[in-house]
Design a protein that fits this description.
single chain; 302 residues; alpha+beta; seven-stranded antiparallel β-sheet; four-stranded antiparallel β-sheet; globular
Amino acid sequence: MTSLHIDATDTPSGPSAYAAVEIDLRDFIDLDEFPIHDLGSARRAELVASARADLESVGCAHIASFITPEAIEAMRSESARLLPKARPADSMINPYLTSDDDSLPADHPKRTYSRRTSSFINSDELEHTSLLRKIYDSDVMVHFISDCLNVGPIYRWADPLGRNPYSVMNDGDYFPWHFDGNDFTISILVQKSEAGGDFEYCPNIRNAQAENFDAVQATLQGDRSRIKVLTLFEGDLQIFRGRHSMHRVTPAEGATPRIIALPTYVTNPFLVNRPHHAKAFYGRAMPIHVDRDLARTDGLTD
């Protein structure tokens, strides 16, 4: 395994572009269809109840066409301008993003590695006027996501690289089976690949009391009995418990890259990615990742 590079020259990016100003939700949401600002709205209550039910039953909530086409086009334009800054990955990872442990059997999930080739446009590369930053900084969005999760309070993530990146998958790129280090992930599909790029996941395959290595191992060896598939379309919102649900994105196909925005929220405002997660996902670790390298309270492998 390669040694961990800590980029001491980089400093965390400052507050997002819209942190101190009023955010007009109409810049990215049709408030007639999705009145997330109106706490007394029956439609909002319906959206929250549906999301909670789906998260409880299958570990994933999906709201189609949540972001307006105009906002998606603005995000697509930004990501296209930033593609030269995308951090490509070409590494072997296991579902836990950990180093090999030769004390375990060769077919143990911790020793099962797959090649990851997808890229990230890291959060610190986003443009100052980025619409993705604007979506991320909206307090109304934070409140709505919190209600859908039935978890609170939640916070914007302190991680300077992973708080709201774009994930990019070019033709043939693959993001293998893995668990997330953060509590949950929000996804907004910005650009669909011509084929492939399906989101596959195993809902709640582990929990804070049990790693369930046998079920993880069976899935890695081809058992599809636990796998659910979600095909996203541009503008769709996905709310997902990636800490407990192993997941992957199947290889993208075609000349059009698959681009997805990943605004991420957490229950602990101090935590960031652990250094090995930052290196595996975003190409480098920063001093903040070392300074805040705290063990997770759930005790799960990551």
